[in-house]
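ok so i was messing around last nite and threw this chain in just to see what happens. nothing serious, just curious
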Amino acid sequence: MLHLSKLKQLLSQNSLLDFVQAGEKSHLKNRTLNHSIDVSRLAIPISGNHQMYIELNGQACLCDVKPGTMVWMPEGSWNSPTWDQPVETLTLIFDNKSLRLNLMTKEKGQKETILNSIVWNPLPSSGLSELMELIMNSEKKVLRHLLQAFVYMIVELPKPVIHQGKAYQTWKGIHDYIMENASEEITRSSIAKLFQINPGHVSHLYHEFSDQGFADSLNLFRLKISKELLRNSNLTISQIANLSGFESANYFARLFKSEFGLPPSLWTRE
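result:
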C-alpha cells in the first residue's frame, strides 16, 4: 500500500519551495538519453535525490531534484531518471481516463526500484489534468502556492474502491513500470523478480487483463521511444534501436515496419 504521510508532512510544513518545468515539446537533437512522456506528470521527491535528465531551454540538463522541489513534465516532453542515488519520490500521472500515484523507492545498494501505486479509474473528479495545466500557466509568484494546494487536494482524495482485485493491481503496476522504464533492460524474469511473482504469472496477467502479451506491450513502448528519436535526432538506426531497448537493430527494423508500415530508414523522411 502506498503511504502518503511523509508527503503530507511536507505539505503541512509549507516545504514545497520550488518547481522545475520540462520543455513542453522535445526539440533535442542527438540526445543520448530518452524517455518519452505520453501523459503529463508531476514528480515530487519525498526523501533523497531524484536525479534526472530533463530538457530545459532546448538543452539536456542533469537536475538534482530533492525534497522541496517539484518537477512538472507536460505531455510531449521527456525525462530520464538516473536512479543512481537513494530516493523516495511520488509521481502524479494524468491521462484522459485515470489518475495514478506512483511511489518509487530506490534504497542504497539496491539494483531495482520498488513501485507502489494507487489508481483512480475513472477519475474521482473531472478536469484534474486541465486544472493542472491552468496552474502551471499562472503567475510565478502564486504558482508554488497553487501547486501545493493542488497536491494536497490529490493526496486527500478518498482512496479508490478496488473492484478488479489484487491480480489486476499487480498487472497495472507491471504495465506502469514498463511504460516508465521501457528503454532499460527488462525481461519477463526481471519483472517477475521485481513484483515477487513467477514468470509464468506475468504472462497469465497479460492474458487476463490486456489484449497484448507482455513482450508485445514492452515492444510497443520501445517503438514509441524509437519514433521520438527518429523524429528528433540524427542518430543511426543501430543507435536508436539500442537506446530504445532493442538488442538487435535488425529485429527492431522488422518490428517497426510491421507496426508502422515503413522501415525506420524511410519513416524518417516521411
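not much to say yet. The first helix runs from residue 5 to 12.
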